[in-house]
Design brief:
It is built from 3 helices and 5 strands. The chain is of the alpha+beta class. Strands 1-2-3-5-4 form a 5-stranded antiparallel sheet. The two termini are 25 Å apart.
């Protein structure tokens, strides 16, 4: 598997040309088996009254230093190839700290519950999460 996998965090600008204003996004799934390959991402944002409250975090990642919401309305599916290319040429694009599996599970659960996710993204996530679970169940457990 390449550099892109579920749980890594990326600093993605809202506007591609903006080198300074970036939000932290979390990759929700390993690259899919479609062509071209895609991944679902969702971003963190400082919580303010009136924002979505599906998942508000106060800790769990070094980026979170104040109440932070997972902004599911901004969830999207992006190209694995483009992310890998950015990681190669832009050192700061990938955040140095990945999500813990516990935090990733909370975020993934939230994307399936949120009323703010675009249906196409929510359906994509539902399908990819189910594939990952089936794959995990199919792998025989090794004796310790």
């Amino acid at each position: 598997m390449g550099a892109v996998k579920a749980g890594i965090c990326l600093r993605i600008p809202d506007v591609p040309e903006d080198k300074y204003q970036r939000h932290l996004y979390v990759v929700l799934n390993d690259p899919d088996d479609r062509e071209p390959q895609g991944i679902a991402v969702v971003r963190f944002r400082t919580f303010q009254p009136g924002m979505e409250e599906t998942l508000i975090l106060k800790e769990g990642h070094p980026f979170i230093d104040r109440p932070t919401c997972v902004e599911y309305i901004k969830a999207k599916v992006i190209s694995v190839a483009k992310v890998e290319a950015r990681i190669k040429v832009e050192r700061r694009f990938r955040h140095e700290t990945d999500c813990s599996s516990e935090l990733l599970d909370k975020i993934k659960s939230g994307i399936l519950q949120s009323d703010f996710v675009r249906p196409i993204v929510q359906n994509y996530c539902r399908e990819e999460f189910a594939k990952a679970e089936a794959k995990a169940r199919a792998v025989p457990k090794r004796d310790a």
